[in-house]
Structure formats: C-alpha cells, structure tokens
Specification:
alpha/beta, GART_AS, Formyl_transf_N, 25% helix, Rossmann fold, phosphoribosylglycinamide formyltransferase activity, transferase, Formyl_transf_N_sf, seven-stranded mixed beta sheet
C-alpha cells in the first residue's frame, strides 16, 4: 500500500526551535539546508505510482526558516519515524500529518490511540488554516509541530502549496489525514501524495456531500430529507470535495424527532472509532485496491476477509 520515500537529512543531529510569542500562537515551519531545491524519491510497491518532484522554497518562507535556531537535541523531532520496522511483522512505522480547522476531536482520538500503541505510526506534524483553533492548541500542548496553510498575507509564517509539500517531505510524512479541515486540498498535494490522503465526512457519501456540506449543515440536511440513516464516511481525497473513493462507512440511525445536535453527537462517536480503525489499518499496510479502483481494508485476524 505505501511507498517508501527517502530524503537527505541535513539536520539529523539537530532540532529546530519554533519562534515563540506569548501573545500569539507559534509555528514550526519547514527546514532548509540551502537555497537549492530539495528533491524527493520513492521506492515503489506494486500497488503504487512512481513519481519524482522538485519543489523550490519561496524566498519569504526561506527567510522565516533561517530564523529557526538549531541545537544539539532531538527532542522535538522524536515523533518522526526513520524507517523503523516492527521486528514481528517487518512493517515500517508510518509518519502521519493531520489537517484540522476546528477542535480536532478526531485528531485527538487518533493521537490518543497512537499513545496507547494501537496505531503503528506517529503524528509527525499538524497542519491548520486557523492557528488559534482547538486542534492547534492541543498539538502545541503535546509537542506536535504546527504548520499554517494556506498562504496568507497577514501570516508570513504560512506556507504555499509547494512549500507545504516540501515541509511534509522533511517530516517524512507517509499519509495525510484530514480531520475537519475545511479548505480544498490543492492539486499539488494530491499529486504528491497519490492514494495517501484520507478525509472523514459526517454523512454516508455520496449523499449530503460536496461544497457547502460540512459540520452541522450536513446533519440538518439529513434530518430535513427524511433519511432514516446517516453516519461517517472515510474516503480518499482527490481534487474535488467529497468525491474520492470511499474506504469505510459506519451506519447511524436517524431517530424520530432527532435534532441536528443529537444526530451530530451520535455520528461523531462513530467517527472517533472508525478513524482510529482506518488509521490502524493504514499504518499496518492493510489497505488494498481492487482492479476496478475500489479500496478495501484487509482483516488483521483473517487476511482473506475484506471490508
């Protein structure tokens, strides 16, 4: 399922220190060893597409990067796995990037599962478009680097799409998990991480999906339609809203006299469980693709069973 990526690590013996401002959130941005463009390469599994890209770092981003201090410590880079394989399974531990725009409850659930040892991976970095959101605060409290995206004039530390790809490469990110991120993912990121970006949506796609269907608006639309069932959907991400291949769903009943808040609470409970299950399968290389392009999850207990 996953393709290995190798990068030179000019800062393997040091760590970047984020610029801190007691009145404002702080960010850890991408590393840069020189003004030359870093490259990325892959060793490709039979189920993946080979690619090689070059992404130059913008001068403004590089100026910001050069303000980061390097010291002889690996404390803040401990979350980045470096081709460590489980001796029992031979599966390499994965690095995850999570994108949030709000409270990040799914992000927290996945992180807690990582800490409990349920997920064979680590959250290497958090990406957000709202520096003050609950998800970003939780990341900073747990020493997870935070990147601001997309690029904003009033936020010089924010990154462009190309610089974001470069930053994720620096963190050796294998998979990207969108967890309530409300911006459209740029084509540069979709092309750089084929079949490696997942999103969770609070309805049974393809129903009640697409632009404008997010948060409480989804649950309101479900109730107004008279649908008897709803539930979360986890799907791979393409260049459009909610149109990528569906990977997993969980059915939640819509009961008589339901309110949008009540339905949202029941769906969210299932979201937390389902996303952890999918993240676990993803990091254990249990996602397979049928010949017709449909992704399936192979059972851990019985490799001949799929869901």
């Amino acid at each position: 399922m996953e393709a290995r990526r190798s990068l030179s690590r000019p800062y393997s013996n040091c760590v970047v220190t984020p610029i801190r401002n007691l009145k404002k959130p702080y960010f850890l941005s991408l590393l840069s060893s020189s003004s030359s463009s870093p490259s990325s390469s892959q060793t490709v599994s039979p189920n993946r597409v080979s690619f090689k890209t070059l992404y130059p770092i913008s001068s403004k981003s590089e100026s910001f990067i050069n303000r980061l201090q390097c010291r002889n410590s690996s404390h803040e880079l401990n979350a980045v796995s470096d081709d460590i394989e489980d001796p029992r399974t031979g599966i390499r531990r994965k690095n995850l990037a999570v994108f949030v725009s709000g409270g990040g409850s799914n992000f927290r659930s996945i992180h807690e599962a990582v800490l409990r040892g349920l997920v064979h991976g680590d959250i290497a970095v958090l990406v957000t478009n709202k520096p003050g959101c609950g998800g970003a605060e939780y990341a900073r409290d747990n020493n997870i680097p935070v990147i601001l995206f997309p690029k904003m004039k009033e936020k010089p530390e924010s990154l462009s799409a190309n610089d974001l790809v470069t930053a994720l490469r620096r963190y050796k990110v294998d998979f990207i998990l969108l967890a309530g991120y409300l911006k459209l993912i740029p084509i540069e990121l979709v092309q750089a991480y084929p079949r490696s970006i997942l999103n969770i949506h609070p309805s049974l796609l393809p129903a009640f999906g697409g632009k404008g269907y997010y948060g409480m608006k989804v649950h309101q639309a479900v109730i107004a339609s008279g649908a008897r069932y709803s539930g979360p959907t986890i799907h791979f991400v393409d260049e459009h809203y909610d149109t990528g291949r569906i990977l997993a769903q969980r059915v939640v009943p819509v009961v008589a006299n339901d309110t949008s808040d009540e339905l949202a609470a029941r769906v969210l409970q299932q979201e937390h469980q389902l996303y952890v299950e999918v993240a676990t399968a993803l990091c254990e290389d249990r996602i397979v693709w049928r010949e017709d392009g449909v992704p399936l999850i192979r059972s851990k207990e019985n490799p001949n069973d799929y869901s």
